């Protein structure tokens, strides 16, 4: 597994909460002082919250929390708990009469893993915030990764357990780029340096990897698993970014998914990545973008290596 976590980025706190019996959970990335934010949605079946707000041209340029959650669209209810916690902490956008915490989020579909009736709610979102810290390094079947699986080209019967992974890279000048990714992909996870499948669809009869791309190209079947997957995550850096640049970093970071998940950004996935800037260290956006790609790649591999 690769070393480093998203909490290596100053001001970032990470918290998880999960129901392992129900096979679901949520993860929260907290930025108490606010972080300039961007987002890029590539999958065709996303479930998101406050993504329009953090696009260029809109009023608010900072968020105080990012929620990654299971439970499909039901799981967005966990954001209410995140908002409650942050409001109690006096964290939020000052409107003059009240501070409103800005909490963006994205969901993945894990309702077929164990129980379709157990989903993250406000209480779980609140607990994830209580559990948040600057030294949280938990990975695997925790938080939003509790019900994550990969390789579902023949359905859940051929899938493998996945989870949530995190990694970080330190650049010259004191710049840190970190990522956390909950991997619940339709496709296989591969080692980008060798192309070897690390986790993915398995033939129930032989126990061997099917190789999802080869299977799709050689099959005439239609795939009816739309909306039942999705890889979601956050990239963070202490480099100084504008809102436009944060959105660009989120776009570039998706290349990390393309390097490690095959196929990716399908009709069956709602792949979404957020980008956060917490600091004032000057850096080259191209270098930061390259580091974001690598951090996301490493986080994906960590998600299936627990």
Could you explain how this protein is built, in words?
The protein has a single domain (6-303), classed as L-amino peptidase D-ALA esterase/amidase (4-Layer Sandwich). The protein is globular. Strands 1, 2, 3, 4, 7, 10, 11, 14 and 16 form a nine-stranded mixed beta sheet that branches. It is built from five helices and 16 strands. The protein is 21% helix and 29% strand. It has 306 residues and is α+β, with helices and mostly antiparallel strands.
From the structure above, extract its key features:
306 residues, alpha+beta, L-amino peptidase D-ALA esterase/amidase, 3-stranded antiparallel beta sheet, globular
Helix content: 10-25%
Major beta sheet summary: 9 strands, mixed
Which spans have pLDDT < 50 for at least 5 consecutive residues?
A: none
Quantity of strands, as a count: 16
Strand content: 25-35%
Mean pLDDT: 95
Number of domains: 1
At the fourth level of CATH, the homologous superfamily is L-amino peptidase D-ALA esterase/amidase
The top-level CATH class is Alpha Beta
Q: If you compute it from the alpha carbons, what radius of gyration comes out, rounded to the nearest whole angstrom?
A: 18 Å
First-last Cα distance? 8 Å
**Shape from CA axes?**
globular
Tell me which CATH architecture applies here. Answer: 4-Layer Sandwich
Q: What is the number of helices? A: 5
Assign the CATH topology: L-amino peptidase D-ALA esterase/amidase
Following the backbone from N to C, one meets helices and strands in this order, namely EEEEHEEEHEEEEEEHEHEEH
Helical/strand content category? alpha+beta
């Amino acid at each position: 597994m690769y070393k480093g976590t998203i909490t290596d980025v100053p001001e970032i706190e990470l918290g998880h909460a999960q129901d392992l019996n129900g096979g679901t959970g949520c993860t929260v990335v907290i930025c108490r002082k606010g972080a300039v934010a961007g987002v890029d949605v590539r999958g065709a079946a996303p479930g998101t919250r406050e993504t329009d707000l953090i696009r260029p041209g809109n009023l608010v340029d900072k968020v105080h929390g990012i929620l990654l959650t299971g439970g499909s669209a039901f799981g967005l209810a966990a954001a209410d708990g995140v908002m409650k916690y942050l409001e109690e902490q006096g964290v939020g956008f000052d409107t003059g009469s009240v501070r409103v915490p800005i909490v963006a989020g994205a969901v993945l579909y894990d309702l077929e893993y164990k129980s379709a009736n157990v989903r993250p709610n406000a209480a779980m979102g609140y607990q994830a915030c209580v559990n948040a810290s600057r030294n949280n390094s938990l990975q695997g079947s925790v938080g939003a990764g509790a019900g994550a699986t990969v390789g579902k080209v023949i359905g859940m019967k051929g899938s493998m357990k996945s989870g949530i992974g995190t990694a970080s890279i330190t650049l010259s000048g004191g710049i840190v780029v970190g990522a956390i990714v909950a991997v619940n992909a339709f496709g296989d996870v591969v080692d980008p340096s060798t192309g070897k499948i690390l986790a993915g669809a398995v033939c129930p009869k032989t126990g061997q990897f099917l190789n999802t791309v080869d299977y799709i190209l050689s099959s005439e079947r239609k795939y009816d698993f739309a909306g039942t997957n999705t890889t979601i995550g956050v990239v963070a850096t202490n480099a100084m970014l504008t809102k436009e640049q944060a959105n660009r970093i989120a776009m570039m970071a998706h290349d990390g998914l393309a390097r490690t998940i095959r196929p990716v950004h399908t009709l069956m996935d709602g792949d979404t990545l957020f980008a956060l800037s917490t600091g004032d260290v000057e850096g080259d956006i191209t270098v930061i973008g390259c580091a974001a790609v690598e951090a996301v790649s490493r986080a994906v591999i960590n998600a299936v290596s627990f």
